[in-house]
Design a protein that fits this description.
β7 (222-223), α9 (232-240) and β8 form a beta-alpha-beta unit. This protein has helices spanning 2-5, 29-43, 78-88, 100-106, 108-117, 162-169, 182-194, 217-220, 232-240, 268-274, and strands at residues 50-54, 69-72, 93-99, 122-127, 173-178, 199-204, 222-223, 246-252. It is of the alpha/beta class. It has an eight-stranded mixed beta sheet, sandwiched between helices. The chain has ten helices and eight strands. α2 (29-43) crosses α7 (182-194). The protein has a single domain (2-274), classed as Rossmann fold, CATH 3.40.50.970. It is globular and about 60 Å long.
Amino acid sequence: MNDMAESAALAAADYKSGYKPVWCPGCGDYGVLGAVTRALAILQRPPHEVAVVSGIGCSSRIPAYTSCYGFHGVHGRALAAGTGLKVARPDLTVIVAGGDGDGYSIGGNHFLHACRRNVDLTYIVMDNHVYGMTKGQASPTTEPDWDSKLAPGGTGVRSFHPLVIALAAGANFIARAFSGDSGGAAEIIAQAIRHPGFSFVEVMSPCVTFRPEQKDWKQSVRRTGVPETGDPAQAARRIMTDDGFNIGVLYAGDRPVYARERAATVTPAELEAEFAL
């Protein structure tokens, strides 16, 4: 009788909503969605105790495709919203999702300071080196010589290196995953959520519509082959000499997590009194 009363284990499907994704066929974000729901099943955190926050872009549609609480914010502001939510509700598991344009361009300043603050949340960036939703413009991580109709001959601008920036700014956990390995990505995301502090996971997520050559990523990615490190200097050497295709945990630090004592509960009437003229 006691066994029957116990709650059944949650499966990945329990974290998916009834909405069908509208991504292009072959988009890597399908694999990331699967990895996120599988990671949550690994952790067995009830959906109502998880909040998924996003900004704008193809990848930022993810909150609608989960059964968790979700917030679809404005362009580049996902980390600001996610940080505020986690500080106000530390009991929630907060996952922030976005793409390389949303996260590193208009959201770049929030990215730096989210790493620095080290609030206990997980940031998943689906990086395809292009603005997919707005028809193929170069993004911060686009190679400088990538030729396109919008940037003939390439932009000539050096690519943004998010892992290096994250380490320098103070992220407490840094990893890279590949959307084509949904199971491996799920394990990395679960580890990131478990790790205290600001966890950053870069997921290589091909845009087969505007960057069809990224289909070759499947043959290029490889397991990092070295154990994770908590030494920032060692992690910096690994990341700076990395070719961008090593998959795994590159840094797992032990910085103190941002924490703030919660104020005593006040009534709405007391709050109104403070603003009375």
